[in-house]
Structure formats: structure tokens, C-alpha cells
Amino acid sequence: MKRFASFISGPLGAIVLIIVLMSIAMLIAGTSPIDGFTALILGSLGGRNQIGETLVATSALLFPALGICLAFRAGLFNIGAEGQLLVGGLFAGAVGAAITMPPFPAIVIMLVLGAVGGGLWGAIAGWMKAKLHANEIISTLMLNFVAQFITLYLVDGPLKNPAANGAETAWLPTNYWLPTLIPHTRLSIGLLIALALAMLLQFVFARTVFGYELRAAGEAPEAARRSGVNLSRLTWLALAISGAFAGLGGATIVTGELHRFNTQLSPGYGFIAIAVALVGDLDPLKVCVASFAFGILEAGGLAMQASAQVPKDAIHVIEGLIILVLAARRYVAQRSERIEGAANV
Amino acid sequence: MTGLILTLLWLTLVKSTPIIYAALGGVISERSGVINIGLEGMMAAGAFGAVVASNYVGHGIAGAMIGLLAGIASGALIGYVLAFAATKFKVDQIVAGMGINLICSGGAAYGLVLIFNQPGASRQVNSLGNNGESALIGFAFLLAIVLHWVLYRTPWGLRVRATGENPLAVKSAGLDPLRFRLVAVILSGALAGLGGAFLSIGELNLYSDGMTAGRGFIALAAVIFGRWTPLGAMGAAMVFGLFEALQYALEGRFAWLPADALSALPYIAALVALAGITGKVRAPASDGVPY
Fold it and tell me: Is the ipTM of this complex over 0.95?
């Protein structure tokens, strides 16, 4: 049993598990797994457009996953990436529609403000945790819903594009769009920003005092506190930066792919990113690989639904099962000490 | 004005009920030492299970009753998954709970397509009707009192609470703490499933994607705000229910009020409650710590 558990929670086991579960989901839907997987692979990697869509999802998952990774390393749970993506996207979309200036500074301003927006949203939970000892899991979850309704109110009211039927901001001028990475696809250079961010995070973890303090706070909070780490400052900073990553992700989706803001910006990327971060072992470089794998599932899932009649939601069930299996893995020691250390969650 | 107040009172009862059920589930689970972030998913499972059973059985109120039982059973089944993972594999309960939420919301969406052949929402099924809805509302309050009594006045309740505080002490008294956790989390799932079934075939007569709308998470805030006691959680759930009711009572009457922004009220209320209460209350000592 132990060996089985350790096998399926390893990377090879995860792939085998995915294939077996996907096959079951396909059989239930009345499709042969061969047809199903063919549709999934062709739909995600079968051509330039498909690869483009896979990488769009990869990039959208990578930003929040890196943020979750950073918070998790500090022993903090950020389940609020979905809301942070929305707030970041809203900041970028609203500002981009309002300003008039040359494209380069405009794009930089949109991206920076996106990060600021997501960062503020994360900082609310961080401040509540650091100053009031409010459980960050519940506060980030609540903030998701607050973000969803407030952004919806804004784009259906004050910020609504009067020319559009739905609730969305005005379109960005074409020269404010992030340049495309692969011609004739929707993929923008946002992916490169995400990859650069992953390398930066790897450097921060491995080589900086801040990264060391984050890991110390996550692995042995009491020891970290005694050796002079300001846990309260670290807590709100970690959640704010984590939110900023997701917010920057939202901003790249707006400037890179949607070219306006609406609340359908993310089909749950913020939650799936939790799975991505865990599969990637909370290691920024492995998280890049995990994002690509989940990007295949996301893009391929849509294609599978269209051509093999397997509902794409099967993908989310499988992603949930992967999280459930990974929960048995390594976080236990680290979290339990944290929870005991702050029993007043 | 009296009309508005009466509407508001009734809506508060209606909107509190599913949160009360889920929050009672949260209390019993956390009292045994397992944090149940999966309440949200268990509510979705209950809501969906109830609609599917009612759809197949049909035939008036009997069909709806079987739907209700199926909802409870669906919640309990998902509760068992978390209970098994938490006791057998000593998983990180938060991670496992998030996984369960994704499985349930995705599973229900997948099931909608397979069973009802349409994404987004099921077709309309037999509901419990107005009487059934009222009965379930009353039962929620009754159950809160009963659970309070069970937790504080029976040996079983004492043992569950002891398991949440110090499982080793329970072990040294010759009892198996894992058994108490297993039962408590399954019950927790059943209660959340009941809350979900209330949403789908009590208040309405169908399942739609996202219909639980974070009520399982609000229930977790209610558990904390209610200081981990059934009656306290019931009171907290009513406060959050009141804010949800306010939104419905106000948005029709005052056209200038922004409906979307009002929808954020219950979540903001939960945030404020969480910010105001923590530090003044104490969670069970072994809450969230695998044994």
C-alpha cells in the first residue's frame, strides 16, 4: 500500500493515473479511449493553432501557480488566485482603455498595475493574517467571490463599454496589445514573461535572504521567529507578492489575448494552478513543466469535447483527483507545525 | 415597510438554512480535528445527487423525498472520501479538500452533460415543494440544538471533542481516535449534502453549475464566528443568511442599488466577521493536524 501510494504520487505515477482515469471518463461518456486521447492530443499539439492554445493556457496557469508556490513555500495557503487574476485583469483593462500614450510605456503600465491590483487583493488577506491572525484560507476564498462580484459590477456599470452587448470594458487600441509570440495564434509574449518570472523565483528561493526566510518560515516558523525573522512582515509580503503574480497573469491575459476585460477572463485557472504548483513540487522550474502538462489538458479538453463528445469537465474531475492524491505527499509535517504554531487560525 | 421586513425575515430563514446545515457539518468535522474545506464540494454533490435521484424516481413528493435522501447520501459518500484520506493517508486536509471541491463541481458538470444532455443546468425535477422547504428550514434549527446537545451532553460528543483537542489522550483511554474522525467527517458530508439538496430541490427544482456559490466556504467562516459550537455556528450562519437576504429584498425595491455589488455582501460580511473574531477565539487544538 505504501509503495503504491508513493508510486502514484510520483511524476510517472501521476501520468499513469491520468491516463487510467481519463480512459474511465471517456468510457463512461461512451467514447473509446483511443478516440478520446487522439482528440485530446490532436486538439492540444496537433498543429500551430492547437499548440498556440495549449501555450496560452500554460501561460495563464503559470503566473498564479508561481504565486501559489511562493506562498506555499512560506507555509501559507493562497486559494485566492482566481480573484487576484480578476482584479489584476480589471486594473490592466480599465487603465489601458483610459490612457493615451506610446505603446511601450502603456503596456508596461498595464502590466505593472495588473500586478499591483492582484498584489493589493493578496495583501488584504496578508494583512488580515499578519495583524488579526485571520485564517488566510478562508479570507482568500471569500475574496475570490468579492472580486468576482465587484469586477462584474464595475464592467456592467461604471466601466462598461457602451458599444458592447455584454459586460466588458472598452477594447484596447491594437498597439496596446502584447506582441504575438507565434504568428497566427493567440499566443502573446506573456508566456516569456511567465518563464522569466519562474527563473527569477528560482533565483529568489535559492540565492536570496528573502527566499531563505520564506522557506524557513514555511518549514520551521518557530525557529525562524527566534532567529530574528519578522514573521508578520513576511506573511503579508508573501501573500501580496503571491497575489501580484496572479494579477500580472490577469493583466497579460487582458493585454495579450482578450484585449479587453470581462469576468470570463479565467475558467478556474486560479484553482487549477493549485494542482499545477503541487504537481510541480513547489519548484519554479518543475512548475513550468507542470503548467505545460495542464495546458495540454485544458486545451485538449475543449477539443475532446468538440470532436469526441467527452464533456471537458471530466478534465476538472481528474485534476481534482490528482490534487487529492498529491495531498498524501509531503506537506504534512510542514503544515502541521505551522497550524500548531498558530492555533488561532 | 412591514411587508419588506416580513419578506426579509422569511428570506433570511431560507438563505440561512443551507449555510446552517453546512456549518453544522463544519463544526462536527473540525471538533474531531479535521478541517473540511471540501464542504463546498459536498454541498454540490448533495445538490446534484438529489436532482438526479428525483429525476429518475419522479412521481411527486415521494420522488423528491428519495431525492433528499440521495442528496444526503451523496454528501456522505464524498465525506467518506475525505475521511478516508484524512485518517488512512494522513493527507494535508486543506489540499485534499480543494481536490474534493474540484472533483465535485467538475463531476456535477460532467454528469449534467451525460445525464441531462445539456451543460449548465439540469432540467426541472420534482421538488419538495413549499411544505418540504419549510420543514427543512425548521429541521435545520432543530438539528443545531440536537447537535449541540450531542456534542456537549453525551459520551460520544465528549469523545469527538477530545479527539479534536488531543487524540493521544483518547487513544490512551483505550479508544480509537481515527474512528471518531471517520464518523464525524462522514456526518459532516451528510449534513453538507443535506444543505445542498435544500438548495436544489428545496428552494428550487433543478441543479445548475455553481449553484452552491461558496456557501460551503461561508459555512467555514460561520464555524469560526460561532466559536466551533453548533448553536454559535447556527447564529453566525443566520447573520450571513441575513446579508444574502438583504441583497434579494433590496435589489427589487430600489432600482438604483447595484445588484452585482450587493451580491458581494455575504462574502464581505464573512470577511469582516473573520477579521473581527479571530484572536478572540480558539480552534480545537488538533484541528487540521493528522493523527
Answer: no
